[in-house]
Structures are given as structure tokens and as C-alpha cells.
Amino acid sequence: MKMGELSIEMDQVDVGEFNNPSEATANNVENGENAIASEELIHQYPSLFTSKTLIELSNSSWSRSRRANEDVQPYLRGCKWSPDGTCCLSVVNNDGVHVTELSRDLYTGYVAPNRIIDVMDSVIHVKECGLIYDFCWFPLMNSSVPESCCWLTTRQNAPVQMWDAYDGSLRCSYRGFDAVDQMEPALSVIFSNDGSQIIAGYKKTIRTFDVERPGREFVEHKIKAPAACIDTCNDLLAVGSWNTTISLYSVNTPGNYKSIGVMHGHGGGVTQVKFTPDGRYLVSGARKDNRLLLWDIRYYRRPLNILPRVVETNQRVYFDISPCGKYLVSGGTDGVLKVWDEDQVHWRSALEVTEHMGDTATYKFPLHKDCCNSISIHPLRPILATGSGQYHLRRPMTSPEPKTNNQDSILPIIKKESSSDESIATKQSNKRKIEERESPDLEMEYKEDSENSLVFWWIGEVPDLT
Questions:
Q1: How far is CA 401 from CA 10, 150, 330, 394, 404, in A?
Q2: Where are the domains of the chain?
């Protein structure tokens, strides 16, 4: 894999040889000022959703093979942009990890409404067996530095593994062992902000590994509830658990976690926690909970705000916060993308108890006809990555069969009982017994609204839009 370097091209000035030293000094000063101004332009994050229109840029989809098992359903379970914005890492159920590159024409400039949609193909595909619990990029990843191009995964019955983003090879692994010296998989994993440490959450512990020392060396901290999801910002660590609580820790030294407090408010197991870029607020979501809770880490006793979304299953539905901290976006099991713009809806403000709580989203975009479970905002460009899909249960397909002697003996009995005064519950019970005796053939069938795709959207300004 040859990954491109995402950067804003700058015109190089040929200084040449100056006869007058003062002229050279003045030119250097001017070039330095221009460089500083260019750096400010590079780090200035663009405005999002200004045109109130989303343009589909690229699309990639997955479908079940004909020879695959009936229970195999390849739907998206998460996607994350790389820190340098050159590619997107996505996890597909029963199909491992995929790396998809961003088209080079999207590195700079704007997008026209009539742009041709790209059909994406994975440049790297790691076929991992087992359920992948969590994944993350190296925070200092840069395509021009091959050593920094890697990601972490933690999956069922396996240690934390580091993968190379150039060829998809396994670099190393970090193994956590319990009190009886048995290796156990991590439920969640994340890098520290400087990338020197790996923080992995387990059922009863939080283990910190040194990135440069793979193996079984770690620092351990005991916890009371499983660490289903984690996030870190500066010296703070937030841990969401299956028991609906969120624990907040202060990290002074690696492995030394000082408990700050526990936050309560969700109705289901917490599936994601994420700090705002300034580190003052924390957003959390849970399974089968139609709410995003916003917390002020200085006053964590109660939620600061409640943002409605649709999550009607146990599936993890991701949300994301823009690097500028103004926009909060979330998917839902109804396939609708919801956006909260701080300039129009003060979603980071305190909650008014007497206020009637309705749908406070600034924008709503029906992007997918299936569950929109994955959301990731590009770190530099106004581009959004979304993933769709969910597990669809099997539906019984009744095939016509000739009547047997057992069915003939049942029908007169049912007819006789129906003529008597029996309750509705008894009739329904007899009907279920007849359906069970028929033993219909069970066949895996996708619903008509099933969709398993990874899509890139343009969410910036569209100059030629009329």
C-alpha cells in the first residue's frame, strides 16, 4: 500500500542569491510571516453543513457470499478516519478490518454537485476471526512516516494487536493475564494522547502497556465494573461500563489512576464516551437508550444536557465531535443523521428542567435505509464517513406441505373447541401449537431495507449549488 500525504500545497519561493544582505533578511522575515499565515490557514477548521446539503462522494458495500453460513451477515460495526485524513479504517462484521483511501482530488478545493460517485475498494483487508471489540488509530499517524502508520484492535479470545497500515501485517501484541495466569481479551483499547502508552479496559482491571515494550508487561489498576468503552483527554480518563455508569479518573502517572467520581444517568450499558476537544465536557451514549448525555466534568453529579437520538437495539451506535468542537453528529437505528450546531443550538449549555424537551437537533439527514451505526468526521476536510447495517433475525418461511395424519387428527379437535366458549388466549395457544407441528423451513432472508455500506459525504460549502 502506498499511502498519500495529505497536505495543503504551498508555492515555494526561489530566493536565489542576494547581493544585499539586508534584502535577504527582509525576504526571510516576509517568508516567515507568510509561513505563519499559511500554518494558521492549515489549522483553521472549515465550517460544516453550511449548504444544508450532503453530496455523496464515495461508496463501498458488502454482501453475504452465496456459500457463506446463514448466520454470516457482513455489516459495518464502526469506522474511523486516520489522524492525517488519508484513509478510513472500518470494521465489518464477520469480515475483519478494511482500510479505504480517500481520493486525492478531495485533498483540496470544493466539490461540485455533479461529481461522479467513486466506488471504493479496500486497499488493505485483514481477515480477523472472532468478534472485534474495539479499534483505534495511532494518534500521531502520518503517511509520510511509515513507522507511525498503525492501528490497534482487540477481539474475542485474542490479545491487543498492533497492525501495520502499509501492508496489513501484524507488528506485535500486548497480552493481559489475570490472577491465574490466563490471557484475557480487552474490551476496549485506546492510545494515550502522546502515543507512548496503550490503555486497555478489561472486565475487572485497566491495564497500561508501554508501546515500545510489547508482550505481557503492564501496570494494572483494579476497577469494579467492566470497561466497555474508554476515552482520554489530557490527564483525564473516562470509562463507560455495562452497568450503565461512567467512571472518571485522573491519570497522574501511567497506571496510577485516581478516582474522581461516578456518573449515573443512562438506562442501558454505555457503548461510547468521548471528550470534547477542549476537555471540559464529556458526551456518552448507551444501548437501547434514545439519549446522548452531555456532562460537565467539573459538575458531574447530573447530566448538563440531554440530546435525543434513536437507538432501539443493543447495537453500538457511534457519534462524533468535530475537531473544532462546534458540531456533534450521531447516527441512529432509523438511518437518520442528526447534527447539533453550537452556533444555532447551544448543546453545551445547561439543561432547563422546566423546559419541554423535544428534538433539539439542528439538522436531520435521512442518509441510510438501514441502521446508521458508524460516524466519523474528517480531521482536516469537511467530509463525513458513515457506515450502515445491523443484524437481521431469521424469519420463518412456510413451505406448503401435504397434510399428515397428525394434522387430520388435530383439525377436528380445534373445530370442536372453537365451537365452545373458550378464551382468546386458548385459541392463540392452539394456533401456535399447530404452527409448531407444521415445522416450517427456516431460511435466512435480508429485509428489504437492509444496507451494509461505507459512504463518504461532502458536508462543506457547495459554491455551484443552485
A1: 74, 56, 48, 21, 9
A2: 45-391+448-458, 398-440
Of 112-126, 201-215, 247-261, 344-358, the range with the lowest mean pLDDT is 344-358
Q: How far apart are CA 89 and CA 91, in angstroms?
A: 7
Nearest-angstrom CA–CA distance, 163 and 189: 14
Q: How far apart are CA 138 and CA 148, in angstroms?
A: 7
CATH architecture of 45-391+448-458: 7 Propeller (2.130)
> Could you give the C-alpha distances from 79 to 90, 135, 342, 443, 453, in angstroms and in order?
4, 9, 24, 30, 11
Using the predicted structure, report yes or no on whether residue 316 has a pLDDT greater than 80: yes
Pairing of strands 327-330, 55-61: unpaired
Cβ(87)–Cβ(378) below 8 Å: no
C-alpha cell at 461: 460549502
Under the banding of pLDDT at 50, 70 and 90, the label for residue 63 is confident
Cβ atoms of 114 and 121 within 8 Å: the answer is no
CA–CA dist 455, 466 (Å, integer): 24
